[in-house]
Amino acid sequence: MAEGGAPAVLARRPLFAVGSRKTAGSPPALAAETAVAMSYGGSSHAVLMATPADLVDFAYGFSLTEGIIRHPDEILSVEIVAFETGIDLQIALAEDRSAELAARRRSMAGPVGCGLCGLEGIEAAMRPVPSVEDDRFTMTADDIDRAMNALSGLQPLFAETRAVHGAGFYCPDKGMTAVREDVGRHNALDKLIGVLAREQVAARRGAFVVTSRLSVEMVQKAAIAGAPVLIAVSQPTGLAVETAEKAGITLVASARGDGFSVFTHGARITS
Known about the structure:
By secondary structure, the protein is α/β, with parallel strands linked by helices. It has nine helices and 14 strands. The relative contact order is 0.13.
């Protein structure tokens, strides 16, 4: 069972299989997916479809990467309230953070059709990201291969379902120190950022490793957390590369054990 009393996997097999699927079999379980609301001060701020696991980490990571808090100490408590139709994460903020969030909501409220809400949404999606200044962190090509291999071996939900993304934190001197999983790649990274924040681990001391393509949102989250290197099994988008270049992040893609591509700030990858 996951946090909040909801199962992270469901026992459900296909009615039948055809072709190679018939002999290969199917995963023994399906990944659970449920509506998770992020509520602050009793008001729902966002609802996301997510795996109901590591939800406190999710609340911290989402709050940090969305700019609702600047430091984990600004969250006073997280209460997980389960309903038949989903889960509500009731997050209590420090007084100044709560007041700032309320002011932000008031500024975004306007007459329907005025264009303000759309403009605010675009500006939020394309917000500038902080620069990762630490150039002392380096990795070797072998480190990158080890990181990808370690992540694949530390995903119990994926092993059961073959249907979730993983995000891990890799330190060359310690190995893979934290992994989080979710049906959504953004959610998995938020959960990882959340657990690092709660445990007061500095993201600048390692690399984020993800089992997904690299969209601009993934780069934005890594920059906000302060990770100098972002490694993915798949390719980046053009905007992700541009954003990583500006943010000072080393972007490593198509890392599948037989090589990889470095798109930005390659000095951190040493021979």
